[in-house]
Design goal:
Elements lengths: L5 E7 L2 H13 L4 E5 L2 H5 L9 E6 L3 H15 L16 E2 L8 H11 L6 E4 L5 E3 L37
Antiparallel strand pairs: 1-3, 2-3, 4-5, 5-6
Length: about 170
């Protein structure tokens, strides 16, 4: 099995919050792995890594794992420490919205620390982005989805001054 066959089901800031959930998955017969992607950011002193702990399952177990995850969360708040999208409540979140696997993100992290580049959380399910707590929202981008590319859907909270394209 290659890492490409694994899908994130929950994202955390701290390893100790992911370990009990992995054990509960395995006790239910769903093999799960924890991927810690914080090493590069610590190595390059970019800052404290957020959304770097990912609980992953093989893609063939994804639907079953997601169902179990929702049951566990409803029963005892299993996702209380997980990062969640404010739009769809998914815990498949990235921060920042670019990969950590290469040297370039560390350069971008440095530029972000200087305030030259904006970093935001990104939901893999609904593609919503939002700023880190305590940060101001990024400038509106009316050219980005959903305001431009998805036609025929009602616009939720369109940015000020943007208009829905008129079709003939």
């Amino acid at each position: 099995m290659t890492p490409l066959n694994y899908v994130t089901v929950a994202t955390f800031n701290q390893l100790e919050h992911a370990v009990p959930l992995r054990k509960r998955f395995e006790d239910s017969g769903i093999p799960a792995e924890i991927h810690n992607e914080s090493t590069m950011e610590r190595l390059w002193f970019v800052g404290y890594p957020l959304a770097a702990i990912r609980l992953k399952v093989h893609s063939r177990h994804y639907e079953r794992a997601l169902k179990l995850l929702h049951e566990l969360d409803a029963a005892d708040g299993a996702l209380r420490h997980a990062l969640r999208c404010p739009e769809c409540a998914s815990s498949r979140v990235e921060y920042p919205q670019f990969t950590r696997r290469f040297i370039l993100p560390n350069l971008i992290g440095l530029l972000s620390a200087l305030g030259l580049v904006e970093k935001e959380f990104y939901c893999q399910d609904c593609h919503y982005t939002w700023p880190r707590e305590g940060r101001k929202p990024s400038r509106s981008r009316p050219h980005s989805a959903p305001y431009y590319f998805i036609e025929g859907l009602p616009q939720s909270n369109p940015p000020p001054g943007s208009e829905t394209p008129k079709h003939a």
